[in-house]
Design a protein that fits this description.
single chain; about 475 residues; alpha+beta; five-stranded antiparallel sheet; 15 strands; about 15% strand; rod-shaped
Length: about 475
């Protein structure tokens, strides 16, 4: 339905005498005033013509015509197409006329992110609210660490030996400080001695903290060299720190390092392997004794501490000879490649249980079942009894593998037959793998103590060799 345009209407009252008038009067009936001189009211032009296209007083055609030759309707006009004004007719702050293209402010200027909407002219007086859960800004140390690592790797590739910075095992981003904690997340890092593996020629060793102890008090040292005649020689030393003593981890480390240095030097000079082992035990003892040489002021603060102490066990394989040496309850086992031949334990413990068995007072099973079984009667340390290094030499008549270990392993494979069962069949060819398997056996059994084992393959002996 189209809207009707209204006809021109006369004034309701005479402009001269204010007498009421009727529609269509040309003169006032009271005073005769000529009503034709009164201007008529302006016609009413609606903004929109309902039901048909038209043009309003604003000059904006509505709906907008479709472009010729296009089947796509033109975009409708929106209220935001026209500029907003305040009650005084002035443009609102930040508003932009519809026909002008607003120029965005440069990034970083105060107008960027302004609380005024330039398109609609609507002003938001409150500042934008922060997110409820803002994301943490990237840690610049991550990028710095990565850059330094890459630079160090590049330098190392150029022929220089460079130690790469340690990266946290937890967040894998922060550096590790000298105290062993991550500078980024604060996570304590595993100690270097918690798990150690090493290969040296034909010898291999593995040490693990175990599942119950807070640190690894075991230590090992392995190496290989040549005798003066060119014959190869392999050596291994394993030490177990005495937990009831002060700084047992330092004692075992000092003993193993001193012993391996002494062994290699003596063998290279042509010293008999058994004599070299004896001298190595003495050198290890001196290194541990030196740890007790503290200032008197230090002893005043800790008067009840014992001197550092550890056990010792070592082995040499050279020229068809197998030499062992020990002080304490760490052990050496012989396991032949041909498992139909018997295995053997080559050391005797310096312990309460061993003394009970040697004296005939208890059977081996009864003695080692006693709670006093592992109380040692011999050790390296300043407060030890008179040092009695034990050494022995053997000439096996067949190839095999020598197992040098702490009680953290042999507690789970005590007899020679039990040890033979858990040593992998290819231990003589893959000693590192076999050492890992043996440590895993102890951990699977409970891992109540630190676990350390070294393996020395014993090659096929010369023809005619016999037992010594």
């Amino acid at each position: 339905m189209m809207s009707q345009m209204p006809q021109q209407a006369a004034p309701a009252k005479c402009p001269s005498c204010a007498e009421p008038l009727e529609s269509g009067d040309l003169f006032c009936g009271a005073c005769g005033y000529d009503l034709s001189a009164v201007p008529a009211a302006p016609p009413d032009h609606p903004t929109l013509t309902m039901g048909a296209a038209g043009v309003g007083s604003s000059g904006v055609e509505w709906p907008p015509p479709e472009p010729e030759g296009s089947g796509t309707p033109a975009a409708p006009h929106l209220p935001t197409d026209l500029p907003g004004t305040d009650s005084g007719g002035e443009p609102l702050p930040g508003s932009t006329p519809a026909h002008d293209s607003p120029t965005p402010p440069p990034h970083g200027s105060p107008a960027h992110g302004s609380p005024v909407s330039p398109a609609s002219g609507v002003r938001f007086d409150r500042a934008p609210e922060a997110d409820d859960y803002p994301l943490q800004a990237p840690d610049p140390r991550v990028a710095a660490s990565a850059a330094e690592t890459a630079e160090a790797a590049e330098t190392a590739g150029a022929g220089e030996t460079t130690e790469l910075p340690k990266v946290c095992v937890a967040c894998r981003a922060g550096r590790v400080d000298d105290d062993g904690y991550c500078e980024n997340c604060g996570h304590a890092q595993p100690r270097e001695r918690d798990h150690m593996e090493q290969e040296a020629g034909p010898v291999a060793a593995v040490s693990d903290r175990g599942l119950r102890h807070h640190r690894n008090e075991d230590a090992f040292a392995i190496g290989h060299t040549a005798l003066p005649d060119g014959t190869p020689a392999a050596v291994a030393v394993v030490c177990d720190g005495v937990s009831s003593a002060t700084r047992p981890d330092e004692a075992s480390l000092a003993a193993s390092r001193a012993a391996i240095e002494s062994l290699l030097a003596a063998l290279e000079q042509g010293t008999h392997p058994q004599q070299a082992m004896h001298e190595a035990i003495l050198a290890a003892s001196q290194a541990v004794n030196a740890l007790a040489e503290e200032p008197s002021s230090a002893r005043e603060h800790t008067p009840h501490q014992n001197a550092p102490a550890c056990t010792f066990v070592g082995s040499i394989v050279a020229s068809g000879l197998l030499v062992v040496g020990w002080v304490g309850d760490s052990r050496v086992y012989w396991v032949p490649v041909d498992r139909s031949a018997p295995a053997a334990r080559l050391t005797e413990d310096d312990s309460w249980a061993a003394q009970m068995v040697a004296a005939g007072l208890m059977s081996e099973a009864e003695a080692y079942a006693d709670e006093r079984a592992h109380a040692i009667t011999g050790w390296l340390g300043a407060d030890a009894y008179e040092l009695e290094p034990h050494t022995a030499s053997f000439k096996p008549d067949r190839p095999g593998v020598v197992v040098v270990c702490t009680d953290g392993l042999w507690n789970y494979a005590e007899t020679a037959d039990e040890m033979s069962e858990v040593v992998p069949a290819d231990a003589d060819r893959r000693p590192l793998h076999a050492a890992r398997v043996l440590v895993g056996h102890a951990l699977d059994g409970g891992g109540h103590d630190n676990v350390t084992v070294a393996l020395l393959p014993f090659p096929e002996p010369p023809q005619g060799a016999g037992s010594a």
